[in-house]
Design a protein that fits this description.
42% of the residues lie in helices and 24% in strands. The protein is built from five helices and five strands; from the N terminus they run αβββααββαα. Strand 1 and strand 2 form a beta hairpin.
């Protein structure tokens, strides 16, 4: 972290803490930086780490993802599929992905009913902080699952390049959360398919 970023964080975080401390105390049961590893969705190996899981009622949970960017610059990324963006915004898909991730994680059998993007940077004009909570429907899950499968097939065929935009949150998210697993799987499969010359069972015909 550069000195400028650290100084800005020291400036805004006390106000952020004051704004939400009371709300945080109301949630007694939660997990921070909850990791999910070695799970699959529709045959796709996926993984991820959730910033915060709020356990609302036994198995019912809300997932929070903290964002350091400005809400005004990111709000379109929270939209579900529409005419302008038929694939859905990057942040919307990220929330749905967390639902898929927790559904595949059998340790706690949590039912994620909503996800929340919490922007820690205040609005420059109003100085107010912004949270956006999104409900996740079965239709949302099916929609994003299909995207994951397509991306997975592309990666296995060494064809997944994304949209080639450096700032695409979804492509970066996909690559960081399951591309490495897939590439490792491909490497293992290729090694298994390659005859071992040192094996006594291999014969040259």
């Amino acid at each position: 972290m550069c000195i400028r970023d650290r100084a800005y964080g020291e400036k805004i975080l006390p106000a952020y803490l004051d704004r939400y401390l009371k709300e945080w105390k109301e949630i007694k049961d939660f997990e921070l930086e909850y990791p999910v590893r070695n799970v699959q969705c529709e045959g796709v190996p996926i993984s991820g780490k959730l910033d915060k899981v709020e356990i609302l009622d036994k198995k019912i949970v809300n997932v929070i993802d903290y964002k350091t960017g400005n809400y005004e610059n990111a709000k379109e990324q929270l939209n579900p599929p529409n005419e302008k963006n038929p694939k859905g915004g990057d942040y919307w898909r990220q929330i749905v992905f967390y639902k898929i991730l927790l559904d595949a994680d059998k340790r706690n059998q949590w039912d994620m009913v909503s996800g929340e993007m919490d922007f820690v940077q205040p609005n420059k004009q109003t100085n107010e902080f912004k949270k956006v909570k999104l409900a996740v429907t079965p239709q949302d899950v099916d929609f994003v699952k299909k995207q994951l499968v397509v991306a997975y097939q592309g990666i296995k065929a060494h064809e997944f390049n994304g949209c080639n935009e450096d700032d695409c949150q979804w492509c970066n998210f996909v690559k960081s959360n399951f591309q490495t697993d897939v590439l490792n799987l491909i490497s293992n499969e290729e090694n298994e398919d390659t005859p071992d010359a040192s094996s006594p069972d291999q014969h040259i015909e």
